[in-house]
Amino acid sequence: MEETSREIGVFTPGKQYSGEIHIPNSTLRTTDIFNSANFFWKDPAEKSFNDALLMFNVTISIDGIRDFQKFDRVQIRQPNIIFFHDNFRALGNKEEKLRADVLKKKTQEEKKAIHLVTKMRVNSFFDIKGSFYGLFKGKSVQKYIPLSDVVLHEVSRQQDKWVKKQIPLPNNFMGINTTYIETCSFDG
């Protein structure tokens, strides 16, 4: 089995983790890895929690403090992950892209706009606008929903006022944990 690694970013309440994860093969989408029954572990003996994601070469950032702390390895429990992003610009070879185009035509999936607001955590929440393909109801049964064309804002209470800050994402992509979605609205 081909094993490799992928750079990702993971957001938990109040923190951002940047680092790498092991993946079983390079053609898997990060969303598929997060939606699988178990996260892939190169060495399962390292696992402390059944629902943990192992990241390595990790940097933790906290609002206002970039590169707060570095770790060789951390285990992040899946229920704490609000969303993730990756730097994976393109997936697969020509045949995989052709298969995806044929499937899109066959299912008649259209790109749809969505506006999400997450639950309040640590005096803040995320205001997310993006796009997805297919039926949202079908995607909402998954643990993570892939969104593209994402515009992400964190809205936080600072002293006696609310402050809205845009958070840039590589490739404007994210996978959001469905348990953190409080509201959604479909645009257009």
Please supply descriptive tags for the structure shown above.
mainly beta, 11-stranded antiparallel sheet, 11 strands, globular
Architecture blueprint of SSEs:
Elements: E1 4-12, E2 15-23, H1 30-35, E3 52-62, E4 65-77, E5 83-86, H2 94-107, E6 111-118, E7 124-133, H3 136-139, E8 144-158, E9 161-167, E10 174-177, E11 181-187
Antiparallel strand pairs: 1-2, 1-5, 2-3, 3-4, 5-10, 6-7, 6-11, 7-8, 8-9, 8-10
Question: Mind explaining what this structure looks like?
Answer:
The protein is mostly beta strands and 188 residues long. The protein has one domain. It has helices spanning 30-35, 94-107, 136-139; strands at 4-12, 15-23, 52-62, 65-77, 83-86, 111-118, 124-133, 144-158, 161-167, 174-177, 181-187. Strands 1, 2, 3, 4, 5, 6, 7, 8, 9, 10 and 11 form an eleven-stranded antiparallel β-sheet that branches. A hairpin with a 2-residue loop joins β8 and β9. The longest helix has 14 residues, at 94-107. The chain is globular and about 45 Å long. The chain starts with a strand and ends with a strand. The model has no long low-confidence stretch (mean pLDDT 83).
**Class from helix and strand fractions:** mainly beta
Helix content: 10-25%
Largest sheet: 11 strands, antiparallel
Distance between the termini: 44 Å
**What integer value in Å does the Rg equal?**
17 Å
- Proportion of residues in β-strands: over 45%
- Listing every helix as H and every strand as E from the N terminus to the C terminus, the arrangement reads EEHEEEHEEHEEEE
Counted up, domains total 1
**What would you call the shape?**
globular
Number of helices: 3
**Spans of at least 5 consecutive residues with low confidence:** none
How many beta-strand segments?
A: 11
Average pLDDT confidence is 83
